[in-house]
Write a structure and sequence with these properties.
Largest sheet: 2 strands, antiparallel
CATH architecture: Orthogonal Bundle
Structural class: mainly alpha
Radius of gyration: 22 Å
Oligomer: single chain
Number of strands: 2
Distance between the termini: 26 Å
Shape: globular
Helix content: over 70%
Number of helices: 11
Low-confidence stretches: 267-275
Strand order of the largest sheet: 1-2
Length: 275
């Protein structure tokens, strides 16, 4: 369809407004991370890097980052294993209740976060309510289990979408040529679904890393992730500028997983494949 020049101008203007609505606040956060004023006077009268230095030497912040990374890695590992197995079961076999199971797998991501958090707290806290030490930080198995529950959806969506696109012809051709099940999976199936696995892992890691609602409900008292640290620091005196510096770093780092998920999904126009 060919649009007239006025229509292109209108759509371009609307797109510009949408982009400004999303990215101007992020730009303000980055600029405020260099604002010398503690009250965020705008426009900034002077600039400093003291807040970045204060964030770098903050021991509680470093521990919170490490805790978030450990939890995200563990949740992503569980999600990769379980999400891939479920995708293969539902994508390669036909049985009674298959569509119902598919709906139940996706449902945790569609439910309101507060409902999911309350359900996971009720289910996991009585059994996994303690914490354990790893790399010098406290990590809660309740948080890992809760994060893995909704990270499975991300991996499942990516893997099953790739299985549906590739079909069964490559695997059938491999078996017709004499390859066994495991050889076919190692040489044919796995290389074809590997980009979906990596994209799902990247998105699952990011989803776990910045989750706060479920974490607040399921984390033991001595477990503090980065989102919880940011939430608590917002209400502490003189911590706002440091929070802005941390947020600026997260904005810059977030570009990497978004770019990788786009590259690995196989469709340059849609990050995350099936999402």
């Amino acid at each position: 369809m060919t649009l007239s020049r006025p229509a292109r101008w209108v759509f371009g203007f609307l797109a510009l407004i949408c982009l400004a609505f999303i990215y101007v606040p992020l730009f303000v956060v980055v600029v405020n991370s260099f604002n010398a004023s503690k009250v965020f006077a705008w426009p900034p009268q002077s600039y400093t890097t003291d807040w970045w230095h204060a964030a770098f030497i903050n021991q509680a912040l470093r521990e919170a980052v490490l805790t978030s990374v450990v939890i995200a890695i563990a949740a992503t590992a569980f999600a990769l294993i379980l999400g891939s197995l479920i995708a293969f079961a539902l994508g390669r076999y036909t049985f009674f209740g298959r569509h119902t199971i598919s709906l139940l797998i996706v449902l945790p991501l569609a439910l309101p976060g507060i409902v999911t958090a309350l359900a996971l707290r009720t289910a996991f806290t009585p059994w996994l309510g303690t914490s354990w030490e790893w790399l010098g930080v406290a990590v809660g198995p309740t948080v890992i289990a809760a994060h893995a529950t909704f990270c499975i959806v991300v991996v499942y969506n990516n893997v099953i979408a790739r299985l549906r696109r590739m079909g069964t012809n490559p695997e059938e051709a491999s078996m017709d040529l004499g390859a066994g099940v495991f050889t076919t999976f190692r040489l044919v199936t796995f290389p074809l679904i590997r980009p979906a696995l990596v994209a799902g892992a990247v998105l699952a890691f990011g989803l776990s890393f910045d989750e706060i609602v479920v974490t607040l409900f399921t984390a033991p008292a001595n477990v503090t992730t980065l989102p919880i640290w940011i939430f608590q620091s917002l209400f502490r005196p003189n911590q706002g500028p440091i929070v802005n510096a941390v947020a600026a770093v997260l904005i810059l780092i977030s570009i990497v997983p978004v770019y990788l998920s786009q590259k690995l999904s196989g469709d340059p126009g849609h990050a995350g494949g099936a999402l």
